[in-house]
TrEMBL record:
InterPro entries: Glyas_Bleomycin-R_OHBP_Dase, PhnB-like
Residues covered by the PhnB-like domain: 6-130
SUPFAM superfamilies according to UniProt: Glyoxalase/Bleomycin resistance protein/Dihydroxybiphenyl dioxygenase
PANTHER family attached to this UniProt entry: PROTEIN YJDN (PTHR33990:SF1), PROTEIN YJDN-RELATED (PTHR33990)
Protein name in the entry: PhnB protein
Pfam families, sorted: 3-dmu-9_3-mt
Amino acid sequence: MTSRLNPYINFSDTARPALEFYREVFGGELAISTFGEAGGADGPDADKVMHGQLETPAGYTLMVSDAPTGMDLDTGTNISISLSGDDGDELRGYFSKLADGGSVSVPLEKQMWGDEFGMCVDRFGIAWMVNISQPAG
């Protein structure tokens, strides 16, 4: 798998209908996971979208999520750029360079879903997410 870059949009509570709308516009296949499916079944965000992804026939990838309770969400800060793939060295290098002069909000490390993931804001105020897929075992 090669690395890819795509937009990642955060919503207050409308990630699912937004993603369904984008599917109507672009076509394609949806994959949606909720916070409840990721261990938060009893929490206030159980039905919210933790991660949604649309893969279109044209090769576009759009990712979305709902902001969990307590997370500030302002227009202008509700979109990130996501880098993902399985070339760990390449993606760790990108993360390091993007974070240089900026700030790291989530260190790039192994997460509960098994991948390495991190978030940072670059020196220009752009939010980035990096996900390194782990080999299927």
